[in-house]
Amino acid sequence: MKRHFLYNTLLNIGLILMTLSAVAAFQSRQYLALVVSMAIIGVLGYLKYRLLKQVRQMTRRK
Q1: Residue 32, CA distances (Å) to 11, 21, 26, 38, 55 in order
Q2: Are 7 and 23 in contact (CB under 8 A)?
Q3: 31-61 vs 2-27: helix axis angle to the nearest 10?
Q4: What are phi and psi of 39, to 5 degrees?
Q5: What transmembrane ranges does the database entry give (predicted)?
Q6: In this predicted structure, what is the pLDDT of residue 37?
Q7: Does residue 51 carry a pLDDT above 80?
Q8: What is the pLDDT of residues 15-44, one digit of tens each?
Q9: 8 in Cβ contact with 51 (< 8 Å)
Q10: Contact 36, 17 (CB under 8 A)
Q11: Would you place residue 14 in the very low, low, confident or very high pLDDT band (cuts 50, 70, 90)?
């Protein structure tokens, strides 16, 4: 369970950093960086969704 907690923390930090990066890219009109940031946000969001789904299944079994 410690591994899941650490993984969740890293995903949250990544999401926060990519959100800040997307905002900065939008404000500076660097649209390529914005698209890359949004793509990474999507991937991290998907990974977080899968992690939460996996943790829910683990807690239901117990």
Answers
A1: 23, 12, 10, 10, 35
A2: no
A3: 160
A4: -65, -45
A5: 5-25, 31-52
A6: 98
A7: yes
A8: 999 999 999 999 999 999 999 999 999 999
A9: yes
A10: no
A11: very high
Say if CB 52 and CB 45 are below 8 A apart. Answer: no
Name 51's Cβ contacts closer than 8 Å, sequence gap at least 6. 4, 7, 8, 11
Other beta carbons less than 10 A from residue 40's beta carbon: 16
Domain boundaries, the chain: 2-61
Terminal CA-CA length for the chain: 13
How confident is the model at residue 47, as a pLDDT? Answer: 98
CB–CB of 45/22 below 8 Å? Answer: no
Residue 40 near residue 18, CB atoms below 8 Å: yes
